[in-house]
Amino acid sequence: MSADNGLLAAVYQGSNVLCDKEHNLSLMKDQIKRASSDKVKLIIFPELFTTGYCLPKGSEDIERLAETQNGPSFQKISQWASEYQIGIIYGYPEKEDKDGSVYYYNSAQFIDKQGSSLSNYRKLHLWPSTDKDFTPGSQLPDVVSYEGVKIAMMICYDAEFPELVRAMVLKGSQLIVVPTADTYISTATIMVRTRALENHVFLAYANHCGRESHIKYAGLSSFINPDGDIIVSAEDKESLLKAVINVDLCTPKRPSYLDNRRPELYASIAV
Amino acid sequence: MSADNGLLAAVYQGSNVLCDKEHNLSLMKDQIKRASSDKVKLIIFPELFTTGYCLPKGSEDIERLAETQNGPSFQKISQWASEYQIGIIYGYPEKEDKDGSVYYYNSAQFIDKQGSSLSNYRKLHLWPSTDKDFTPGSQLPDVVSYEGVKIAMMICYDAEFPELVRAMVLKGSQLIVVPTADTYISTATIMVRTRALENHVFLAYANHCGRESHIKYAGLSSFINPDGDIIVSAEDKESLLKAVINVDLCTPKRPSYLDNRRPELYASIAV
Lengths: 271, 271
Fold this sequence. Notes:
The structure is a homodimer.
Chain A: E1 7-13, H1 21-37, E2 42-44, H2 59-65, H3 72-84, E3 87-98, E4 101-111, E5 117-122, E6 144-146, E7 149-153, H4 162-170, E8 175-179, H5 185-199, E9 202-206, E10 211-212, E11 215-216, E12 222-224, E13 230-233, E14 239-245
Parallel strand pairs in A: 1-2, 2-3, 7-8, 8-9
Antiparallel strand pairs in A: 1-14, 3-4, 4-5, 6-7, 9-12, 10-11, 12-13
């Protein structure tokens, strides 16, 4: 696989251990090292990967596990990014002290290969039953230029809303990165493929696999090209998936959906 | 198949003959009669079915083939609707004289079982290369109540825009009817399934099959349920597909995408 004409990226799909941050960070370090030795320039981990997704409900548990954006987990991951010269996107539970109150977010952070945070994103569309301990974000994702590719992060359920993906592509995104924790096969097999196709955009879908608490994850992490085709899929096993993101291929084979929209008719979906 | 708890609808997928309206209307009559004898309450024909899709380019040909909304083809089809007590949706090239000018539209008309026009819809998103003789419509589809189901029509490329389908479901549509003339397999296999799933709505996809002019149609007409599953598909052969539209099943299995939207964040897609 040559990355001469693009960004060589990787998605890690594997089982972390619920509430065992030390184990999960160690697993992340192993995969970061492995990806770096494969010349990967960006590695992507699933939603809430540092802690596991099925966090025990109640503020005491969340309080113990959540960290600030630049907390101890960030410090370690940032150091590995710099040491192994690789960008890293990972999901984690974020804690913020603000105006005398504490807020918790389901977040993803993007660290560059120098170890600096390029973007921190707070999930906008919370999954009603299991995300109830979190506060929804209030800001659209950033569009970050990294190694020649314009990238936006969103988290799991976010990507199921065509409005959000469209908004990010209109802002210039060429690659949508989706750390997720999904149990539905149809999300991977039809929905995120449609998101890529209808926007002429690459998409990286990073899911958990195996069982966690009462949940059986769907796996099926993948890279999807701007024609909606799966470039590579992890099926349901532990895997370090790799793909070259060549933005020259965002030029659509079909007529451009972006050019042929009729936004003057869409007002009712934004009120 | 029982229609006790819903609307028994049918899609006809078959090859009409380009520019031979007499033949195509005769074919439509045969299928209307056949569907009626099967107790179907609504039959749906593909895009531009009265004339074929690949109309010769240039105003003289279009002028010869297009009709007003209540022109001779409507008169015949309306009579059959009444005679066979069946609703009919069909695509046709529409001609309108207005303010001293003549306009041509790629339209679909919905006739009730009494033979009255319930709605006439002009395609909003024209396919750039082949729809060039038509004027784009300027009005969102109507939502029509028919036999207990709220129905909106759109045509082909229209349904590939998530914004339009969302707008119609927010207006109350429970069934999206899509007369189409599509050559892409991915539209049927992933895109319109995603439209149904992300809106918790039924969708009827009525395509041509076989060859017409330089085009090989994808077929794959289908009824899709609100979970994004294909209820029944025509593959690539002539077929009268039937399905019961039971709107009680629009209650989503997943959390409601409509309830969990964040429209205050979507302004950029409607300007």
